[in-house]
Amino acid sequence: MDAAKASVPTSDAVLARLADLHPRKIDLSLGRIEKLLAKLGHPQHRLPPTIHVAGTNGKGSTIAFMRAMLEAAGKSVHVYTSPHLVNFHERIRLGEPGGGRLVDEDRLIGALETCEKVNAGEPITIFEIITAAALYLFAEHPADVLLLEVGLGGRYDATNVIERPVVTVITPVSIDHVEFLGPSIEGIALEKAGILKRNAPAVLSWQSAAAYDVIEREAERVGAPLVVAGQDFNCYEERGRLVYEDVRGLIDLPLPRLPGHHQLENAATAIAALRQFLPGLTAEAFEAGVLTADWPARLQRLKQGRLADMLPAGGELWLDGGHNVAGGKVLAEAMADFEEQTARPLILICGTLTTKDTAGFLASFAGLAREVIAVPIGGEHQARSAYEVAQAARENDIPASTAESFEEAIAGIAARSWPVPPRVLIAGSLYLAGEVLKANGTMPE
């Protein structure tokens, strides 16, 4: 019996084999995935109407809003996002009537092994082959819509094999992944704009002037009509409501379930994209969407669970995967809003990767966070040491200490005497966020 169990394949085992196919030298092209997709019978040509989403921050939240709105309207929605937080299955959601589900183990193994067999040992990146597997699954299972998130950049991202999206979306562009995309906003924006396609409306969320100028020129070059935040659509908060406005008129909605002012803009971008795709979508669908959209580790309040229960009575535990400078600014603004509503001492538990601007991420918390407790990220060879993260905090004049783990950091906070229960934010990396969700027993669904 034990031998039989050991022989049963798992998706983790297949993924480990596929990772070994990673080419020694990466060339920026779509050649490898296009070759594999051709052997699979071109599943990218048999997909539901596809909304393709690129950007630096806000991609996942914008997709979460679109999915919730579409499902509220009775649509079946496929979703492809990355990275995952706890389990790989989070990346692939198969649309079904009444709401989609994360891909099950059997279907995932079947798709991965099909791609492995067809690829026949050829060099290919892990993201390319799992994207091929996702497209294969999406083509084999009917749905009304596919929401497709770019993994990195846009122009040479494996998802950019989609030739005729019904809409493209570019969320705010900022500095991130400089080792792949370069150090300038203009260069990064050009890569993101690589998803724009002729005659497909391109919805732009709020952008810096530098990013907008680049995207506008690229849209004109390829013939993609632009729908621009602040020009063609807008949103604002009024009397505790979200007001969305475009040429069709006003939509009065409740504030999003997802906290933070930036989520108003993500919700508005989602509405703008869906109004390009389905002009008849009702206000009721939009309302249900903003009230039900869920996106783990994005200003997520952990009210229950092993870690949450460790805090002093009345304390708050928040989790966010934000890791770049723009993400730090958004997070700090949200924490400042919380402080204005209910004053509490803010303690930031932070772990980051060496590929990120840690000091830049922490800069926005100067004068706001009482202390940074720096922690390592287990199992990540690119993780900064807790000492390095603490030093980055001190560079920003934020008192800092280190702990061996986030559990140790929380236990230390709980052991102190607090006249006012603290507000604890864990942030700095999606990999850290995944560890926290697993440890807390709060698994994404």
Please describe what this structure looks like.
- Helix content is 39%, strand content 16%.
- With 445 residues, the protein is α/β, with parallel strands linked by helices.
- The strands form 3 sheets. An 8-stranded mixed sheet has the order 4-3-2-5-1-6-7-8, with helices on both faces. The chain has a 6-stranded mixed sheet with strand order 12-13-17-14-15-16, sandwiched between helices. The chain has a 3-stranded antiparallel sheet with strand order 9-10-11, covered by helices on one side.
- The model is unreliable at 1-5 (pLDDT under 50).
Task: Identify the CATH class of the largest domain.
Answer: Alpha Beta
Helix/sheet category: alpha/beta
In CATH, what is the homologous superfamily of the largest domain? Answer: Mur-like, catalytic domain
The CATH topology annotation of the largest domain reads as UDP-N-acetylmuramoyl-L-alanine:D-glutamate ligase
**Count of domain modules:** 2
Distance between the termini: 31 Å
Unreliable stretches, pLDDT < 50, 5 or more residues?
Answer: 1-5
Strand element count: 17
**Cα-based radius of gyration, to the nearest Å:** 22 Å
Shape: globular
Strand order of the largest sheet: 4-3-2-5-1-6-7-8
How much strand? 15-25%
Q: Which architecture of the largest domain would the CATH scheme give at its second level? A: 3-Layer(aba) Sandwich
Number of helices: 16
